[in-house]
Amino acid sequence: MLKATSAHLKSLGLTGPGLIIDEARARTNIRDMADKARRSGVVFRPHFKTHQSPAVARWFAAEGVDRITVSSVRMAEQFAETGWRDITIAFLLNPLEAPRVANLAAYLGRKGGRLGVTVDSVAAAKAAAGLDVDIWVKVDTGYGRTGVPWDATSRLDEVLAAIDRPAGLLTHAGQSYQARGHDEILEIHTRTVARLAGLRPGLKISIGDTPCCSTVPEFAGVDEIRPGNFVFYDLMQLQIGSCTENRMAAAAVCPVVGLYPERNRIVVHGGAVHLSKESLETGGRRIFGRLGTLHFPAGGRNIGLGGILDEAPVVSLSQEHGVIEGDGAITGQLAIGDLVLVWPVHSCLLGGLQDNVTILA
Amino acid sequence: MLKATSAHLKSLGLTGPGLIIDEARARTNIRDMADKARRSGVVFRPHFKTHQSPAVARWFAAEGVDRITVSSVRMAEQFAETGWRDITIAFLLNPLEAPRVANLAAYLGRKGGRLGVTVDSVAAAKAAAGLDVDIWVKVDTGYGRTGVPWDATSRLDEVLAAIDRPAGLLTHAGQSYQARGHDEILEIHTRTVARLAGLRPGLKISIGDTPCCSTVPEFAGVDEIRPGNFVFYDLMQLQIGSCTENRMAAAAVCPVVGLYPERNRIVVHGGAVHLSKESLETGGRRIFGRLGTLHFPAGGRNIGLGGILDEAPVVSLSQEHGVIEGDGAITGQLAIGDLVLVWPVHSCLLGGLQDNVTILA
Asked: What's the confidence (pLDDT) of residue A11?
């Protein structure tokens, strides 16, 4: 299968590090999440930081999505340029960027759209107060990164007092990334919603992490969902239990540049700048990705991404090099100059591949 | 000092994540390495993958450098476009890129320059044989990543037999990154040179890692050096013992977006996409950077990068967020919207900041 994978990737004219997206899988991921949001009657405002791609953005539009989330002012500007009109920046407002935010808000306003920002302090709330934007208050429901702690009620009072008409309460339950399996994920989701529900009746509630949004059968007690990672999923989501292998929709394509069967190693052009040094612990070791293959349906059409070769993990990354472990059964199939697929640990951190994207349609 | 640092960075018009380079420090680093190479009578062919900046490249040119090293064909093309004529790609040749390499070699040849490539297999040697390039054979002197193992003499024979006139033997003693202190570094250097020296008398020898190149008093037994990281150094080089704090020449500038004195945390806009998730172990914990300050000389001129705040490490990174630990003495000096400096663990992995660079001259 490694030989056939390489041959097909070469037939597409690929030569070096790049990103492969399986359109059918990504569209399935998008459709399922959009359907669940629709059934639950909540706003689906997907996070676009994962793909940052105008092409993938159109697949969301095809499912009726017209409101999006981004994680920086720059990303908001970029998607505004490609026609998106209703954008929430779900990253704490940097007061130094207030003039730039005002400019973007005015642009979106002229187009009939709307910009949302996020704050968790009186200082940022005051900086946002002068802008024509929706202001969401970030609440920390247990992740411990940013947000007003859900039980710090007087601090929440102070922040809300600095805002004329808050858009609502927004959280990212990033603690779900520590969960393993549906039960643990659902427990986190239930606790997250409970911690927000009683805080300020009447204010909208927006939640956002992929593990919870992927796992709950329907959304109750919230008004909006903002997952992002689910469009591609990845090895980390698979480990958490938010997806199955056949939902993983993005992989790196890397050329084999070194083969060392005597020590069970393959070296590819595909390093920290391509995959990021994001890692996961599995079986007592740290890995940075896994080798994968294409899927060749009978009939030879609709070739897409396939499965994982569990026995071939990426065991180290330097700036441009990826080192993959593989015994003779793996190395024996490969030659210098072959192309392989590498499943990433975290698909949100593939920015270094974004100028070389291939879509398997 | 944090207040003054923020005020000065704001006075430069900075607002968001960016890279700050201290020109005086970087030029000192370049000059010292160039001088040592000159004294030792070896070719100084610095690796440009660390900075990837035309501006920094000119500081090398000012020290007489006209031969450079890069780690990809694309990087070679980029520096060729800005006038560099003698370039070695010190990354194993990907045979699929042979046409692109041929094209670049022809371009450099027309300009009176020369392209070098690196191989460690018969397959890659054959792919290179048809090109008008210098062919270096990569030797593994103990790092264990790529290269013909120094003691695999028959394999070296096979690779050399496939090359008409090899340019020489090239190694990267990356094992020096595991060393701590001058003695351990020098031991690795001595062993590296010894392993290459006897291999093929008459062939040139090129070495490249920053710890060894920074530490040896002079270069004996080699013909060329290719360090890269030394231009900026970083926390990892400081931990290894290759540099002193006042040689570190590049830091990230990040806005404070969240302040949580109740749990000794500061959150900045500066995450994995900016600093990379490269980490180091220190005092039993994993850190991703450290807070820093500017240096304000008496008289108010020549403001440059300053020192490290050891008590304020970056304890976690997500895509856009950096989480810094700091007690009341740190958080008490900071406000939302202040700018801070973050020293990186590995200055070669700051590509996400390269479109927003400020030079302190």
From this structure: 97
Domain count, chain B: 2
> Which whole number is the average pLDDT over A291-308?
94
Residues in chain B: 361
The domain that holds A124 is classified in CATH as 3.20.20.10
Q: Is residue A196 part of a domain?
A: yes
Backbone angles phi, psi at A118, to 5 degrees: -130, 135
Locus of tokens 């040689």: B247
pLDDT at A77 over 90: yes
Angle at A143 between CA A209 and CA B283, to 5 degrees: 125
Residue A290 placed within a domain: yes
Given a contact cutoff of 8 angstroms between Cβ atoms, the answer to whether A206 and A224 are in contact is yes
Q: Does B329 touch chain A (CB under 8 A)?
A: no
Same domain, B213 and B292: no
Phi/psi region, residue A287 (left: phi>0; alpha: psi -120 to 50; beta: rest), is: beta
Residues A130, A131, A136, A139, CA torsion sign: negative
Name the nearest CA neighbour of B344 among B18, B90, B28, B2. Answer: B18
CB-CB neighbors (< 8 A) of B174 in chain A: 318
In a domain, B354, yes or no: yes
Question: A278, B277: Cβ pair inside 8 Å?
Answer: yes
Residue A42 in domain: no
Task: Quote ipTM for the complex.
Answer: 0.96
**Which domain does A269 fall in, by range?**
2-21+244-360
Distance CA B327, CA B154 (A): 60
Cβ atoms B248, B232 nearer than 8 A: yes
| B209 neighbors B222 (Cβ within 8 angstroms) | no
- Across the interface, of B91, B127, B352, the residue whose CB is closest to A320 is B91
Distance CA B119, CA B116 (A): 10
**Is there a single domain that holds both residue A219 and residue A277?**
no
User: Domain boundary residue among B172, B194, B227?
Assistant: B227
Token look-up 């304020």 returns B312
Nearest to A337 among B96, B258, B316 (CB): B96
- Is the per-residue pLDDT at A323 higher than 90? yes
Task: Please tell me the distance in Å from A39's CA to the nearest CA on chain B.
Answer: 31
Residue of A15, A93, A351 with shortest CB distance to B273: A351
pTM of this prediction? 0.96
- CA dist B24 to B31, B99, B305, Å? 10, 40, 10
Quick one: which of A285, A293, A279 has its CA closest to A322? Answer: A279
CATH of the domain at B313: 2.40.37.20
Please give the Cα distance from A170 to A207 (Å, whole number).
6
Could you tell me how many residues make up chain A?
361
Report pLDDT for B299: 86
